[in-house]
Amino acid sequence: MQSIDITYLNGPDVKALALTDAEILAAVESALDAQGRGETVIEPRMHLVPESSDKGHFNVLRGYIKPLHVAGVKVVSDFVDNYKVGLPSEMALLNLFDPDTGKPLAVVDATAITDMRTGAMTALGAKHLARKNSKILGHIGARGTSYWNVRLLDSLYDFDEIRVHSRRPESREAFAARLEQDLGKPIIVTTDWESCVRGADIVVEASRLPEPTPMLKTEWIKPGAFVVPYGTMSAVELSLTDIMSKMVVDDWGQCRKGLPFGALRPHVESDRLSEQNLHAELGQIVAGKKSGRENDDETILFWHRGLSTTDIALGHAMLMKARAMGLGQTLKFA
Question: Do domains 5-113+309-332 and 117-306 have the same CATH topology?
């Protein structure tokens, strides 16, 4: 049997790659374009909830991207109380494979990938669905993905005003301080949801609620706004979908009835969001198969659950850059 080597990229390797905002967005947009053209396989995520813990769960995401000639599986943990023991709430590993032979290619610390690709999905949704002159961002939540939401959105829109809120004061203050340092502009920290959301051009809801609670009121949403709710537990009112001109998702297969979790799970189960009134998947818009925003009056909702293919595309981009830079470790598989 021929020898098989695997490239291992750990957390410090991923940090040393220093992917630019443009590189992150380009990798994720390439995955969306492939999806829109029917050149991907996206398996619905699976959940593993350990019997010994009610604090969190694991997500298993699987996919294949034909243009990149790579398949992958990511396992990401989501344990909300990890901050109490000095750990991030989300940690992940991505395995990349040759789709012809099944040969393992790489193992990548995907904790940063999870955050980056989630932020890129939010930003790319805005690129195609938000008003071009959007100047006010209201962001609920301060978890790992939140930083990349704001950073990548701001790279596209250069907001005049960024408002942030999260449940714990120390969390929202630290989040704002990091953003101010990295973005070089003031961040408004709000003590409540309404003052964060009301009148914003782009609203992102990335809360971490223990159970579904309608914290974000539909009446706060500005006509013509772009709204992105993606918390694990629903934080929006059932009426939110009533005011939308268009509703877009990342992958209907992961949003359909009968699946657990998700910001719009009650809306799907009650047919307020269905395959019949869904405007498009974002990949169809990126690939030019469906329309994005068509005028400034449209109020548009984008719900993303997380695509395995965006993890794989970003991991593949990291692998290619690491090889060019001589980063990573070579592990003997066979």
Answer: no
Distances (CA, A) of 312 to 52, 61, 65, 237, 264: 30, 10, 8, 33, 25
Quote the pTM value: 0.93
Token representation of residue 226: 């772009």
What pLDDT is stored for residue 92 in this prediction?
Answer: 95
Tokens of 38: 């029917």
User: Which two tokens mark 288?
Assistant: 């030019």
Q: Hey, where are the domains in the chain? A: 5-113+309-332, 117-306
* Cα-trace Rg, the chain: 19
Q: Which residues of the chain have pLDDT under 70?
A: 53
* Cβ within 8 Å of residue 325, ≥6 positions away: 16, 17
> Shortest CA distance to 177 belongs to which of 185, 206, 207, 87?
185
Q: Which two tokens stand for residue 333?
A: 């598989």
- Mean pLDDT of all residues belonging to the chain: 95
CATH of 117-306, one of 3.30.830.10, 3.40.50.300, 3.60.21.10, 3.40.50.720: 3.40.50.720
The CATH superfamily assigned to 5-113+309-332 is ornithine cyclodeaminase, domain 1 (3.30.1780.10)
SS (H, E, C) 16-54: HHCCCHHHHHHHHHHHHHHHHCCCEEEEEEEEECCCCCC
